[in-house]
Amino acid sequence: MNDVRILIYGINYAPELTGIGKYTGEMAAFFAAAGDDVEVITAPPYYPQWQIKEGYDRGFHTEELEGVTVHRCPLYVPKVVTGLRRILHEFSFVISSMRYWIPRYFRSYDQIICISPPFHLGFPAIIHKWLKGTPVVYHIQDLQVDAARDLGIIKQQGLLRFLERAEAWLLRRVSKVSTISQGMLNRVSRKGIPAAEIVLFPNWVDGDLVFPVARAQSARSKWNIADDDRLILYAGNLGEKQGLENIIELADRMRDVPRLNFLIIGEGGAKARLVAEARERNLPNLSFKPLQPLSELASTLAAADVHLVLQKKAAADLVMPSKLTNILAVGGHALITAEQGTTLYDQVIEHRLGTLVAPEDVDALEVGLREILAGQRADEASGALTFAAQRLNKQNILLDFRQILALNTKQHNSWNSHPS
């Protein structure tokens, strides 16, 4: 696949440090470095702080970033995220992005890649497919409509049915659907999409940024954490899908454990609530820090004795916790909440990636953590580094996906040269 023209459409993009924007930015830069002509239609960076990054609040503009032409569209970013405000936020981006989409309906591309969520970003791309026959790959990082239903984010049944039908209509009309875990792939399949049209495209680890770091070279010294202190870390998005209030409860229950520190690193819609609750309980063993620089990710993760990977029950197989991939790459011991029967649960057991406990059960979480601290469950995380090396390599994953795009382009060109 040489000199291929690729258009990527997604609301999140580099230089966002976490979540979807990080992966989309790395993917686009990889394609550009391989010789592809890559354009991106996106928003200014705002996640996970839900605040537009300084220097990007200048309306419509285009920049070059790691060989990629990036078109930025202004959008509404709510200070307090609610269901309605999130809908307005996402639709404001779709509307403003038309400034860049309309002229591109008159240009040819070899591939269009849409990143979901928001799920409805596929609709502008479908118009290009109708006009130009361009293959559209719809990449799902988060099953947004399923999450809205199962987590109770949207309770109006009429609206949910409309969204489900709209999503199903869209999935049947794109060229390929890709997603990041086997569980999510199974969910997409149950929506009536043929297996041949679904691609597994997992998130990855950048080995140049995330790797094992000795305890002495970790961030513990920067944070004034003694060698014999125990550090329990949650690092990532502070949203509503993780059940993070259990960390507050856990720290409260474990005041009796000497030299035990809980640290929450990140930003997100739930942060203000979590900080307020921790302050109300007056927890001396719990602290918060903002997102750390990407260059310090390995030393940050290496500082922890135990990593918390928390999800609510209803989020099982809706999202794959991307933070887990980085934990595995530093050889960390993850305490993971997952239900039996989910892909995450089965994968952790099969490859010995960490300690599993039931989600939304603070008693189970406490027992699991106390047993890890007592040295009783060390072997349960013994496969972390091997799995990361064999299954999460950035170069291999992106090369495989680029080959899928190449085949998609070849089929498209073949069909165009032999019209029925």
From TrEMBL:
Keywords assigned: Transferase
Superkingdom of origin organism: Bacteria
GO molecular function: hexosyltransferase activity
Species classification: Bacteria, Pseudomonadati, Bacteroidota, Saprospiria, Saprospirales
Transferase found in the keyword field: yes
Residue span(s) of domain Glycosyl transferase family: 219-377
Natural source organism: Neolewinella xylanilytica
CDD domains hit by this protein: GT4_WbuB-like
Domain spans labelled Glycosyltransferase subfamily 4-like N-terminal: 18-204
Pfam families on file: Glyco_trans_4_4, Glycos_transf_1
PANTHER family named among the record's database cross-references: SULFOQUINOVOSYL TRANSFERASE SQD2
Entry protein name: Colanic acid biosynthesis glycosyl transferase WcaI
